Amino acid sequence: MSDLLWQKSGVVIDESIQNFLAGDDVLLDREFIRFDIEASLAHASGLQRIGVLTENESLAIRQALLALDADIVEGRFVLDARYEDMHSAIEARLIEQLGETGKKIHTGRSRNDQVLVATRLWLKARLTTLQRLCVEVADVALSRAESEQWPLPGYTHMQRAMVSSTAMWWSAWAESFLDSAQRAGDTRALIDANPLGTAAGYGVNLPLDRAHVTEVLGFARMQISPIATQLSRGKYELAALEALGSATLDLRRLAWDLSLFTSAEFGFVGLPAQYTTGSSLMPNKRNPDVVELMRASHASVAAARTEIEQLLSLPTGYHRDLQSSKGAIFHGFGRGLAALNLLPALLRALEWKPEAMRAALEPSMYATDLAIELAAKGMPFRDAYVEVANPQRWEAGDPEVSLSARVSPGGHGALSLEALRARLTSLQAEGV
User: Fold this and answer.
1) Alpha-carbon distance 243 to 306, whole Å?
2) What are the residue boundaries of the Fumarate lyase N-terminal domain, all occurrences included (predicted)?
3) d(Cα 250, Cα 201) in Å, to the nearest integer?
4) Which terminus in the chain has less CB density within 10 A, N or C?
């Protein structure tokens, strides 16, 4: 006789079919099982409040769940192929230790809302980490913007365009990662809704104390409609990946800058040796592999987003297709957060090479300044543009003078870093 939770009498289980059905669930569920235990603790508390469990039964279940959690942390229990998934492993442990009492834990819930609440708690934790990392990156970038004022070539279309500065470069990343931090927080607020108690998507004939369970689990609210709750699976994961993608897209572009700036052709930036590797053949090479793999990390996030988006061509109700969403968020957040975790230290360690940056400035890069100056004196801008387009008008300028004259808000002469600092301080005050 099979010990599968859903096994019905007279149905023969084909091993190859079951292996296909289970997929990588057991391996993936090692990532989520402690959140499933947390949700089971809250569910047991709720069952006691409506009289399904006695106080002694609830206490016994609580002690058994906490012991299992400790065994997982200490490595005494490892989820493996003995179990179909984390849900069956937890229930099997309770039945093994508590007998009939253990059989009561599944009252009023389904594996549908079990997996929803476990992944929801997991996503909330990951979004908190994402927001913290974005705030840390912004803090590093803003601190360096406040202290570093060197001229730096600015580019459009990969061509030298105007005189820029390290302060403007840093402030760009500070503001970009502040935006990503805000988006991570906003997304966490969106998904901060308790799905537990909606069961298989149609409610149950028990007065479940969902408000109590919501509070115990630390959710801001509960999802009301059981059907809408099922519809949110994948949709909320997609929102979380989009928030992660906001940060990894910034990371990809920043990594591109560093890939260029550290090359011999630019020579603007030096990286500490620990962020580079050598060639297996060429003894002269030091390669910026860390930066390049950071640049690649967004691919995993984008792939995860695409996979989940393609899963969501479904009618209402639960469908087994959604099982694949667990692997997608695991891999997407795994790669994305790992890359972002390395970024603050890398940004603290990079060293500018001011002489090389100054040497890359050329007369044409002051042409826009000249056209604006003529327009400010009364010449129609289009006439000034035509006049300054003549290369004979170009001449070498003083980059510091050019930068200090750039007084439009956000330009080097009016960086408005205090506004970015205020945003950062506000986020930090929230405990991020």
Assistant:
1) 14
2) 35-299
3) 38
4) N
Active-site positions read: 157, 279
**326 contact partners, CB below 8 Å, separation of at least 6:** 25, 28, 29, 32, 115, 119
- Residue-range domain boundaries for the chain: 15-104, 111-147+165-206+219-355, 363-429
What residue spans of 148-232 are helical by DSSP H? 166-191, 210-217, 226-232
Query: Most distant CA pair in the chain: distance in Å?
Result: 92
How many angstroms separate the first and last alpha carbons of the chain?
51
Contact between 219 and 240 (Cβ < 8 Å): no
CB atoms within 10 A of CB 375: 16
Give the CATH architecture of domain 111-147+165-206+219-355.
Up-down Bundle (1.20)
The label of the residue with tokens 């402690």 reads: 34
May I ask the CATH class of domain 15-104?
A: mainly alpha
Place of tokens 């984390």: 86
Other Cβ atoms less than 10 A from the Cβ of 80: the count is 10
pLDDT digits (tens, 9 = 90+) for 232-284: 999 999 999 999 999 999 999 999 999 999 999 999 999 988 988 887 788 77
Residue 396 phi, psi (nearest 5): -60, 140
Q: How confident is the model at residue 9 (pLDDT cuts 50, 70, 90)?
A: low
Spatial contact of 329 and 286, defined as CB atoms under 8 Å apart = no
Question: By C-alpha distance, which of 194, 240, 235 is closest to 217?
Answer: 194
132 residue type, one letter:
R
What is the model's pTM? 0.92
Contact 84, 30 (CB under 8 A): no
Q: What is the pLDDT of residues 328-344, one digit of tens each?
A: 999 999 999 999 999 99
| Contact status, residue 96 vs residue 33, Cβ threshold 8 Å | no
d(CA 408, CA 38): 53
Tokens of 339: 């890359």
